Structure formats: C-alpha cells, structure tokens
Amino acid sequence: MNWHSLSIKDTAKKLSVTLESGLSNKEVEKRQKKYGKNILKSKKNKSTLIKFLEQFKDFMIITLIAAAFISFLVSLLQGEVDFVDPIIILIIITLNAILGTIQENKAEKSLEALKKMSAPTAKVLRGGIVSIVDSKELVPGDIILLESGHYVPADARLIESVNLKVEESSLTGESHPVEKDSSCVLEESTLISERKNLVMATSVVTYGRGSAIVIHTGMDTEVGHIASLIMDDTAPMTPLQKRLAKTSKSLGIAALLICIVIFIIGIIKQMPIFDMFMTSVSLAVAAIPEGLPAIVTIMLSLGVQRMAKKNAVIRKLPAVETLGSATVICSDKTGTLTQNKMTVTDISSIDGTERLDGKFAKFILTLASLCNDSILQVNKKEAIATGEPTESALVVAAYHAGLTKIKLDLTYKRIFEIPFDSGRKLMTTVHKLNDRLDGMTELNSKSSKYISITKGAPDVLINRCSYIYENGKVIPLTSLKKNLIGKHNQSMANNALRVIATAYKEINSIPCNITTCGEVLENGLVFVGLIGMIDPPRSEVKDAVLTCKMAGIKPVMITGDHISTACAIARDLGILNLRERSITGSELSLMSDERLSEEIADYSVFARVSPEHKVRIVKAFQAKGEVVAMTGDGVNDAPALKAADIGCAMGISGTDVAKNAADMILTDDNFATIVSAVREGRGIYDNIRKSVHFLLSSNIGEIITIFIAILFGLPSPLLAVQLLWVNLVTDSLPAISLGVEPAERNIMKRKPISPSKGLFADGLVFKIIFEGIMIGSLALFAFVIGIRYFDGNSMGGVNGPIYGRTMAFCVLSLSQLFHAFNMRSTQSIFTIGLFTNPRLLLSFAICTFLQIAVIMYPPLTKVFDVISLNKTQWLIVFLLSIVPIFVVELQKKVNHNSH
Hints:
Largest sheet: 9 strands, mixed
Distance between the termini: 75 Å
GO molecular function: ATP binding; ATP hydrolysis activity; metal ion binding; P-type calcium transporter activity; P-type sodium:potassium-exchanging transporter activity
Number of helices: 34
Number of domains: 4
CATH class of the largest domain: Mainly Alpha
Membrane topology: Multi-pass membrane protein
CATH topology of the largest domain: Calcium-transporting ATPase, transmembrane domain
Domain Cation-transporting P-type ATPase N-terminal: 2-76
Structural class: alpha+beta
CATH architecture of the largest domain: Up-down Bundle
Transmembrane segments: 59-77, 83-102, 251-268, 280-302, 692-712, 724-743, 764-790, 802-821, 841-860, 872-890
Mean pLDDT: 83
Strand content: 15-25%
C-alpha cells in the first residue's frame, strides 16, 4: 500500500480508525493478535540445554572428559573395571556446567530486565484518552502523538504537523532533519527520503510536534526490511571481562607448562604414569580460573540490579567499571542539583522589596496569573500547578495571596495572546476589562475595554516600557528609575533568584494586523515590578557534593541560567569555592580549544551555555586526563552524552534521544544518585578484584602443593578427584559471595581508580603469589604430618599415604574457605565485622559442611579415597586451616602502619 499517496481521510478509512478517538481497547487486542508485537526480530535466546552443552566446549573440560575415558579404558585393559574415578570426574564436570548455566541465565535475565526498564514508550490516543504505552504494544491504526526529542515508534501517516522536523539518518543516511507536512498527498513513485507526509520507525523528532496514524509495525516497517543488519544485540564483553579472559588464557598456558613439568618430573621419579597423567590434567583444570569471566558477569549484573533499585539504570555494562574511575561530574542545575519546583520568595516595586501578602503583591500576582498558561488544582488545601515551572510558581504564589487563577480567568476573560518566544523573551495576553483590577490607579482611563499584560525578562521588558507604576500611580519612566530597577534586578539575581518582570497597558481595541500586533501591544507599557523565585537546591545534594570532593571528584555545574544565579546556588551547595571560577557561554565561545584545555580545571560553573558548549567542556576535561560523567536531557545533549566517559540521561525530563545516547539513566533526575552510582561502581570494581585475588591465590596454592611434593620425591598429596572437588567447592559460592560484599566505609575517601591502572596494580601480584605459597605450604605441612605420625611413614601401601592425603585435602579446601574472609577488606575483618556479609557466612557453612561430609560419610570416603579423621587429626587440620587469617591480619597491620 502506498500510504503517502492517500489523504488523511482515506488513510483513516483504510485502517478503520476514528481520528477523534482512536482505536478502542478491544480493537487493539484484536489487531495485536493479527499483527503481533511492534518489535524487530532478533536472535533467539539460546535454550538452557544449549547453554548447558556449551559449558563443555572449553578445551580443559574436553581434556578432562578424555582423561576420564582413558582412566576407564586403562582399568578395563588391566582387568579391573574402575567406574569410580571416571564417574566422579564426570559428576564434578556436570556440576561445574550446571553452575555455569545458572550464572549465564542469571546475567541474561538481569540484562533483559534492564532493557525493559529503558524500553521506548509512545503517546497514543485510544478510546478518546491519551496515554503512554510501551511502543511494542502499538498496532496499525493507532493514533500516536509526536513531540520533540522522541523516537518515532512505528511507520505512520501524519495527521497534523506543527513545525515538525524529523531526523531519518537510520533510513536515509542523511543526518539533517527533514521538514514534514501532513497536508500533502504525494505521487506513488515518491522516494522514501521525500515522503514528507510519513514518519518512519527509529527516526527522531528534532523539532515541533504532530500526530499520525500507524501504518506499519515491527518487521513490516521500512527499518524492518533492513533488520538483518541490526539483528545481533549480543552485549559485548566489557573491557574488564576482556582483560580477565586474557589473564585466564595467560594463566592457562602457564598452568599447562607447570603440569607438563610435573608430569615429566613424576616419570623421572618413576611414579605411576597413569596417576601422574590424571593428576596433571586435574591440576591444569584446577589451576585455570576459567570461571572468572562468568563470575565477573554475575557481579556486574548483581551490581546493576542494586543500582537500578537506587534510581540509576545502567544501559551499558562497561559504565559500571568506568563509574569507579570518574574524576569529574558535570551536572545540569535545574532538576538535578535543584528540586525543579520554582517558588516565589521576593516581590519588588520601584521602592524595593514588598511584603508577599501586601496590596502591591496582590496586584502584580494578579497580572502574572492572568498572563499565564499554567493550570491550578487544589487538593486538600494543597495547591498543585501544572505547566511550565516558572508560570506554575506564579499561580501558586497568587493562590497563597488569596487569588485563584480560575476565578481571575472567568472575571477577566482572555481574548488574545502572543505566546512566549525565546527570541523575544516575552509573553503577552489581552483580557476583557469588565472590572478594574484591584490596585489599578484611578489615573488610568476608565473607558478602556481591554488590558494587555506582558511578562518576561527584566532587561528586555524594561526597554518596552514608557511608564512606571509607583505608589498606586502611573508616572513617566525616567533613566534614573530604570537604573534603580536594574539594581533591584541584580540584587535579586545575586541571591540566586530567577527574576520575572511584569507590565501592562490599557487599550480600546486589538490590532487586527497579526504581524504588527506585537509592536503595538508590547511597547509603551507601564512597568509594575519584579517577581523573584528560586528553584531550591535538593536537600541531599550538599552532602553529595562534599562526598565528591572527599572522593577526589570535581563537581561542575552547567546551566542555561544567569551567571549570578548559578554562582549563588553553586556557592550554597559547595561546588564553587574562593579558588574556583565561573564562565559564561559567550566567554567560552571566545576561547580556543587549547586555552580551554589549559584552564578548564579552574572552572566549576558554566552559565548561559548551549548544548554545543557541553561537548567542548567534556573534551577539554578529557584532554587533561579526566574521566567525565555528564548529565543531559535534550536532543541536543546527545553528542555531549556520547562524548562523555559516562553519559547520564534524565529519566523524568529526558528525551528518548538523550536516554539512547546515555550509558546510565537517572530515574529521579538527582545529582546525589550519580554520586551513589559512583560509590556502587567503586564497590563493584573492588569486589571483582577481591574475587580475582581469592581465586588466583587459591589456584596457586593447589599448584604449589603438587609441584613441591613431586619435586622433593613425595607421592602426590592429592588425587585427581580431590583436586577437582577443592576447585568446585572454593571457586563457586565463596567467589560469588565476595561479589556482594558491602562497599568499604572509606571507599569515597579514596582517589578515583586510574583507568591506566591494571587489575593487578598496587602489589596485588605479590599478595597473590605470597598467599598462594602460604596455602600450598599449609597443605604440604598437613600432608607430611599425616605421613609421619598417622601413616607410619608409609609412602605407598594399597591406598598410598591415606591419612596424609586426607589431611592435605582438608587443609587445602578449608584454608581457602577461611582465606575468603581475608579478601573482604584491606582492613582487619575484626574491624569491619565478621557478620556484615551474611552470604559469605552461608557459603562458608555450606562448603565446610560438604567438605566434612566427604571425609566423615562412609559412602563418600570410598569415592574420594579418604579416611575418617579423629579429634586430634581434625584439631591439626583446623589449626593449619585458620593460619591464613592470622598471617593476612598481620600483613594488613604492617601495611596499615607503613601508610
């Protein structure tokens, strides 16, 4: 169907929809069944079975399965069919695969939940009511409303277009906005790029507004025809995950080399070849932290869920890592640092400040309420205004002064208006003057039929006035009085007030020439006075700014407001101090990029800036090596959000374009939420380091145990099945539990994490090696004690040194579980509290119980080739296992004292 060649009426007829009320809910349900969801097809998620089978693709797992098969085959050839070793190996591999599948599913569900949270919405007319729905629920025939900054949710035929411009680069490749016209009917052969009466899915409304009838949804849209190009929505690996995967690979190669060396040494020392082969393969699997990338994904997704609960929705996983490195936070003032709830606090006449409940205040607020588009509703004596914040503040102030907008509008009916324009910075309304306004002077002509009221920027409005209202009289406006008004205006601005000026004019007729009516109505006015209002700072922001400064993060205010207002609020919040400077957008435009980069660190307030300036500010900070977080809400903010290291879009006031360009969405538009997210980002990074530290030190401990024993001619302290069990117990629950460790109390008193710093910086490599040697030595010590005192120095026998192996097996496993508590903090665990991470306590309890069960439960002792221990042996095991706590506590104390 060539919808562009049909009229609006014919389009509505074809789609069986009434333009005035839209589709009924019943009809929508019917069409949803017919057309399906308004979504592009994407790659189907893998089934749980496929994910499970993919866990066996790993090279080391394949090697282990081969080893199990060889074990069974060798025993068969020897005439002793041994199912135990192969079955145990396969059970442990399967458990590992189940854990991997659970982790993958968990991460996938977290990311899917986040996608839903940031899914685009559409304004739609259904059953005569305008509501906001998820864009995927749209059907052909739906009537959608389009506004600046919103994505077009489906292909649609325009019904109305008011200055409507749409950017269609996703389809045409042309980045400049296309002007749309709902009234035109085009030839059937018109190219897509020239169909001015249509809007296409995924394009962006950059200016104006309109309404349209949906003609195509989902794969039937124009973008659906090229959907194969954008089908792959797989989340890329984060930089940290890539680094860890690379680390795992390097460690894997190193572990394989060590295992080959161990195998060769074992053969030289005439140990059983088959046993050495199984031990070497098992050790390789145990030594390689192949679960690291999966554990990191789990930690990131858990952290992202925690952030979402605190009003920060992370759209891109790398942002979690970057947050921990943030050094500068550039924030909008209105609604982010402030409450976005303007409140009138001052009223000034030519004589200076007036009482808010006085006669003059009533007069000026009457004028300001009439020249106003906000709607006032009173619920349980609470006045709630809907509309532009400045206008809403005026009608609420009037209500508190005993004036109700509805009554004023009925008494002085509006018959003409010139809407506010950012170029003129004025708004004018004309009202029928049935009655004299309370406060109007007797000197005015009593025969006037109308009153024209103008409000706007004081510096603009004062130049349109010829008279001034003073003490109930209208007198000529002199330059002296102009200067006095200018001083009152400056004084109010210095107190962080937004100032609105009000004036009026009595007329007998409305100019009929539309082009000249502004010149007539907005000149020769009577200046009445100034109304000062403030958007109060959010109560929590002052503390958040202080936290930023303690954390080595520079908070920066960016606003379109007057510089005096911006500086006053910045000083109140602690953003601007005596050594820091402020700058306006016009001054910024005169600076070269080189000079701005040199001086950028001196500035904390940027006032009267345009969205284009934001990109320059971001790049200037980045040129100094800073990691920049930037907030934004408009279409024009998208380049700055993309340029920033962390783009933060506003969830309440933000446009779809801003949200799509951002890495993070603030659902409460609050500066304190960014600071909270930075804290969370630092905590997640710390926890990932803790898990890496724990896993690698444990794995090195396992390598040391085997390597040193074989080097000194001792039998292998651990069998293949025992090594695999230790790896299963220590690599799963404790490592993940460290991922939910609460952030350290002093985390925001530290400097930001340098992006150039590796994961193993600050002596982590030394700590890992030292602790690995300690764990390995303890297990070896237990092995030697077992051989010497309980095996009667027996190195061999039918079952080998069974007490020595059992004790080494227990110490290796339990010492790692105790060691997990050391990883919780760089501070003493007795300082942070033993019970502040209940999940780690639960993991410790479960894993300890499983380890004891393996030793004490007869059916399992046969499987793992161990023997039940008596009280003395358990005491030795416990004392050796707890040693890591005391050694690392001593290490922490030495480090603390040296700092």
